[in-house]
Amino acid sequence: MRPVIPYVTAALLFGLGVYGVLRRRNAVLVLMAVELMLNAVNLILVTADTTVRAQLPHGGQVFALFVIVLAAAEIGVGLAIVLQLYRLRATVAVDEVPLAERPEGER
Q1: Residue 67 CA to chain centroid, in angstroms?
Q2: Alpha carbon of 100 to those of 4, 68, 83, 84, 96: distances in Å?
Q3: Is residue 85, in this structure, part of any structural domain at all?
Q4: Which tens digits make up the pLDDT trace of 34-92?
Q5: DSSP 3-state of 56
Q6: Phi and psi at residue 36, to the nearest 5°
Q7: Contact partners, residue 66, CB within 8 Å, separation at least 6
Q8: How does it assemble (predicted)?
Q9: Does 61 fall in a domain?
Q10: CA-angle at 107, arms to 93 and 100, nearest 5°
Q11: Distance (Å, whole) CA 57 – CA 62
């Protein structure tokens, strides 16, 4: 099997995810773009596992399983943060989030 098609597909998915992270203002869409990047990495890991025979049997599939678990944890924590942000600010726009909390006297 020639691994060119899965590698090109993974590169396109990863590029689309990077574009989504850099361009989007909505926090939920940024999380979806991160998920696209993680799925691209999973595709590369599984493709490399099937094409390159290393000393570790099914190593790419095991790493892909770890990435899936990491993605599930990231979505859980990320959506909790987005929900709290919406409750506090009534918006989920990423560029309106204050990175450093100012003291009450400064405005």
Answers
A1: 10
A2: 45, 32, 19, 17, 12
A3: yes
A4: 999 999 999 998 888 888 776 677 788 888 999 999 999 999 999 998 999 889 888 88
A5: coil
A6: -60, -40
A7: none
A8: NDH-1 is composed of 14 different subunits. Subunits NuoA, H, J, K, L, M, N constitute the membrane sector of the complex.
A9: yes
A10: 50
A11: 9
Fill in the amino acid letter for 55.
Q
CA angle 49, 75, 94 (to 5 degrees): 120
Q: Which domain holds residue 46?
A: 26-93
Closest-CA residue to 45 (of 14, 76, 77): 14
Residue 95 to residue 30: CA distance in whole angstroms: 12
Tally of structural domains, the chain: 1
Question: Which has more confidence, 16 or 86?
Answer: 16
Amino acid at the residue 68: I
**How is residue 57 written in tokens?**
């049997």
Query: Hey, which residues does 93 pair with through a beta bridge?
Result: 26
User: Position of tokens 């909505």?
Assistant: 26
Q: What is the pLDDT of residue 6?
A: 93
Q: Are 61 and 45 in contact (CB under 8 A)?
A: yes
37 within a domain of the structure (yes/no): yes
